[in-house]
Amino acid sequence: MSLFDNKVIVVTGGTGSLGKVLTRRLLSGQMGNPKKIIIFSRDEAKQHFMRMEYQEKYKATDELIYNNFRRLLEFRIGDVRDYHSVCSVLKGADIVISAAALKQVPSCEYFPYEAVQTNVTGAENIVRAIRENGLDIETVVGVSTDKACKPVNVMGMTKAMMERIFIGANINAPQTRFICVRYGNVLASRGSVIPLFHEQIKHGGPVTITTEDMTRFLLPLEYAVDTIFAAIEHAKPGETFVPRVPASCMMDVARALIEDRDIELVVTGIRPGEKIHEIMVSDEEAWRTYDRGDYYAIKAMLPELVTEHEGDPALTKEYSSADSLMTLEQTFDYLRRFNLLIGQELKEEGEFLR
Asked: Residue 343: is it exposed, middle or buried by C-beta count within 10 angstroms (0-12/13-18/19+)?
């Protein structure tokens, strides 16, 4: 039996950039045929437009996905902040992918309690609903961020709390396996830097860089979904999966997108709560991090969840975007590979898999 055969899958925050690609991959049947996919979010407009996207078939090969959509995909209005709403949507679920989040760093800095309510209370509501109602859910995946590692901003702090809430839930709701995935800058996701660079270039510039030294991991949305699938298939309770992906200096990303255009690069200064480098595994986590092929698996800190010894750790220090950077030429080739250069056909997050 394939991974998702006959499963009811709930995706919180399913109308976001990640949720849309995740949904398309689930509907494709590549990892099995789910019984039901429930998109749970609070924005009725985004749900409406997502529903309409599936009703517009782009080419003949979309027919299978379109029919799967009609049969499998359900939209539910609700909010992870509301316990009763969470209880309702989780009833009968087998797998929960928790992607609902307030994720923009400046917004979280200015409205920190709003970030707490979504990122922290939302996670606790999922755990509480499972624990207090005895729900027979197999797996919950918490979608986290590099900013949760050695956090210096509200977004990272709340995501770090989300990770700990889900990891600790393995002890007080042991019928369910709680795991996490953690990754950095997702290419072309809504609110990320590459769509901003595209707009600045289309309008003749300037292209704004916060600091010349800034580096970032470059993770395509497809690979973000791959990480979730790999964690669901292989992660042990309390583990956090981290993808092993290339990194680049953001000056090189900007130069690669500008190409030979006469557009100015302007350094504007670091924004509130922004890091110069992304760190996906900290020094403190390195000693309990193990190699899982294309991923690192960070074992839980709680001794009750570490049941076996896997040999020597895979890392001896933190895993940072500053460790091994692509050259400008490699960055250009990488962006071209994923159709992210100006003028290439596929630039929107929903276009990655069409």
From this structure: exposed
Enter the tokens of residue 113.
């309690």
Q: What is the domain count for the chain?
A: 1
Beta bridge partners of 142: 98, 180
Segments forming the whole domain that contains residue 140: 8-184+218-245+278-319
DSSP E strand boundaries for the chain: 8-12, 36-41, 73-77, 95-98, 139-145, 177-183, 207-209, 215-217, 240-243, 247-249, 265-267, 279-281, 289-292, 295-298, 319-320
Q: Which residue from 221, 291, 281 is spatially nearest to 20, judged by alpha carbons?
A: 221
CA distance 128 to 115: 19
Record the tokens describing residue 32, joined without a space. Answer: 């099995």
Residue whose entry in the numeric block shows the structure tokens 């480098």: 277
pLDDT over 70 percentage in the chain: 93
Domain CATH code at residue 310: 3.40.50.720
Q: Are 27 and 55 in contact (CB under 8 A)?
A: no
- 298 three-state secondary structure: strand
Check 20, 46, 147, 299 and give the catalytic one. 147
Record the tokens describing residue 265, joined without a space.
């690069």
Residue 205 belongs to some domain of the structure: no
pTM of the model: 0.90
Clarify whether 46 is annotated catalytic.
no
Q: Confirm whether 48 is domain-assigned.
A: yes
Is residue 304 included in any domain, yes or no?
yes
pLDDT tens column, 131-169:
999 999 999 999 999 999 999 999 999 999 999 999 999
Residue 328 lies in a domain: no
List own/partner pairs for 307-315 with CB under 8 A and 24 or more apart. 307/236, 313/286, 313/287, 313/288, 313/289, 314/289, 314/290, 315/281, 315/286, 315/287, 315/289
